[in-house]
Amino acid sequence: MNFSDILTMRHELLLTLIALVVLIIDLNLHNRDKHLIIPITLSLFFIHTVVGFLPSVPSILFGGMYHTTPLLITMKNILNVGVLIILFQSVTWLKKEENREKISEYFILLFSTLIGMYFMISSGDFLMFYLGLELATIPIAALAAYTHHESKSAEAGIKLILSSALSSGILLFGISLIYGATGSIYFDSIAKVYANTPMQVLSFIFFFTGMAFKISLVPFHLWTADVYEGAPINVTSYLSVISKGAAAFILVILMFTVFNTIAPIYNHILYLIAVLTMTVGNLFALRQKNMKRFLAFSSISQAGFILLGILGGNIMGMTAVVYFVLVYIFSNLGAFGVVSAISTVTGKETMDDYDGLYSTNPKLSLLMMLSLFSLAGIPPVAGFFGKFFLFASAASAGYYWLVFIAVLNATISLYYYLLVVKAMFINKNEKPLAYFKSDLATRVGLVLSCLGIFVLGFWSQIYEIINSLTFGVIH
Amino acid sequence: MNILNLFIIVPVLTVCGILLTKDLKQSRLVSAIGMGVQLILAFVLVYLYLAERSAGNTATMLFMYDALWFPSLNIHYSLGVDGISVAMIALTGIVVFAGIFASWKMEYLPREFFISLIVLATGVFGFFISIDLFTMFLFYELAVIPMYILIGIWGTGPKEYSAMKLTLMLMAGSAMLMVGILGIYFFSAPAGTPLTFNLMEISKVHIPIEMQRFLFPFTFVGFGILGALFPFHTWSPDGHASAPTAVSMLHAGVLMKLGGYGAFRVAIFLMPEAAHEQAWIFLILTSISVVYGAFSAIVQNDLKYINAYSSVSHCGLVLFAVLMMNQTAMNGAIIQMISHGLMTALFFALIGMIYGRTHTRIIQEMGGLMKVIPFLGVVYVIAGLASLGLPGFSGFVAEMTIFVGAFQHVDVFHRVVTIVAASSIVITAVYILRVVGILLFGPIKNPHFLELTDAKWYERISTVTLVLAITAIGTAPWWLSNMINYSLAPIVERLSAVQLTGLF
Fold first, then answer.
1. How many structural domains are present in chain B?
2. Residue numbers of the domain that contains A13
3. Cβ-based contacts of B196 with chain A (< 8 Å)
4. How do residues B277-321 score in pLDDT, each as one tens digit?
5. Which of A416, B67, B133, B264 might form a disulfide with B197, Cβ 3.0–4.6 angstroms?
């Protein structure tokens, strides 16, 4: 392994190093100084994020098991920025007395899963893909059970690990069938011989089902709400934003590069699942009162929209998916950031608690409103552009009715997003949540997501960069 | 700098200015200045436009500005106006300006109110100056969403219900529009050349007739929902009745015009064959809107509901005239949009002022108001007479042109729907005179009303601006109709160039 290889793998190597450094520092710190880990880790991760943006060349390592391209690097960078915001948003919560003992655990587990996602995105064969996927999933179960003295959190951890074990089983079965049918586990060679024989279609269905669990597409979504509600809020936002984003990235890559030969077949499946996911996610979100469950179901519905880009099946579709995930990360983190800030300070997390919030905490309410509008796809915020491009890519393949169903679903989602806006701005409340001042880290996190929500849409350069990177990915 | 950009920049600066203010006095002052500048800009634009035309500029769109936004999708931020959009911009300028003065005493959360109002206005201005379908759609949605907040926070009655109903129905409309616009985009250029969202570019190509048949209803109904097309009009009475004064003014006066404007600028202009084929369905629906709206207005007792249903009727007439697809009727449609925009804004402003004094909007509880608030009473009568189409006011010019244009079709179907729609003039007279009779004349029913004071200076600014505009159009309609006619010519030419395959 020479220096240029190290540079190629800088995301994985650097983050592993940071995780180890955090561990060592933690060992050497006195108990009362544990909180020092937070600024150290944050600055280390910030450097890591910046390093990620350094230029790189496409290359292949380990005989094709690992490869990177500018597009994959960009995907990792998108995840990095998202994680950075989450880290900022978790500072206040980590500083709490009950978490003092296990601050470093949070970081190390989080970083392990992120490393898993990097490997997953960069994988060149199904073995590396599966290793990455498992590394990305199992530590999250521990994170979900982070506040293990609460039974809900422990329950979330168990639910997550059981359902991901099941989905991994299905996924592995699909992979083994793919290997049986094509004689290879390398993406490149599979793509060359993949055809629509019954065996290969069956293998795809198992594989896709496994992935559908990870992205929580309907009807494989049932674990989501309970896990999201039980896990600590920052872990929930990590699960629903970063974890889902990474899975969506690898799914779109595999669909476009490995399985594209059977697109005429899988398009039927995707069409149906997209409609189901958007509609069912929305219908469940309508009735949620707990903000975490609410965002969980809304994020199920959002995942349905991603499938529209895959159905487009062209460069426009791939760009739209990556761009949408980017926008989605910022919008959802804006919403989660506000929920997290309120929940950490006051412990309140139901929609009724938000009644009259604007009269006491106007800035938080405004940010929440903008994030929700962005999630619903209302201009001038970025969500509008993300959704529009997804719809455009689906329409480019002639799926006009699907676009219509999707936009109607966006309208339904607007209804429940407006319920929150109504609670904050319109509903009268004798005793609204008292004014509180968030600390610096939380504010940085919120301001970052707010900036993203505004800038990403108008600044067309970002879309164009992603578009130029996706060029040539699809054969 | 291109003058059209200013129509976006001035409101944005105004919003930034309001953010810096502290209380009602400052924020209303900043809004009034900002929208005053915008109104002056609108008149400057009219002047510049007429000057360009008289100097012999024959381009379809003037003051074009184009910036490439998303190169890979060929999305442009492109602006341009013709006579029709200039007229609509002038209307918007007047109504927004009057709206600011109508909400001069907005005590509750004034900054937020004016910001939302101006964001709404930005959306409307942006819609009228855009000639790129993407930006047009963006501004359309931008104009719709502040309504929720405006009605939800500052509304009256069942405001949450009305606000939600209005927003969701209009957003469902934009869902249909989205399909229409994307469909148009993917057939906007022959194979091998880059696709485009530009209206002018698309109008040069011929969208395949099968696609037109599929896309036209989506686009037309999408805009039609905003134009209160029966049976999708139900958001309008509830929404207008619950909205605060300035919002009703802006919404009925300007926002509903987005529907009519979009219906002919996008749906009919870009898909003429399908428009001819399917016009009969929508002609029937719009005739129902016209008559049904007018009949509903007769039986209402709430002033705002009366006016809201009358808006359904009048806006139905706009779509009706647009679907007639000849020069005269379409000219009438545009004049009707402007005339109705001014009239209904005036009505809602007056209703707001009367309600602010009497604290009731039920006409039976009031009476003899002409004796105590003569200024407002006289203006109400003027608005009413304009609404029922008295010569000398803008309503007459508009309706006359529409029905003359509609009667140019010689077949039985068009004659019948025209006669049905024309009967609304009589019904309009019934509900207008009924209100005027009960509300303004007769004995004073409530002794408290004797202490009412007449219009304040800011209310006078608001109403007089609108009355002046109405009479100006009514007495000298030629400058407006010439301006519109010139720009309508290429559109009508394109419409009549297609082979007529309509059912009737």
1. 1
2. 3-470
3. none
4. 888 888 889 888 888 888 888 888 888 888 888 888 888 888 888
5. B133
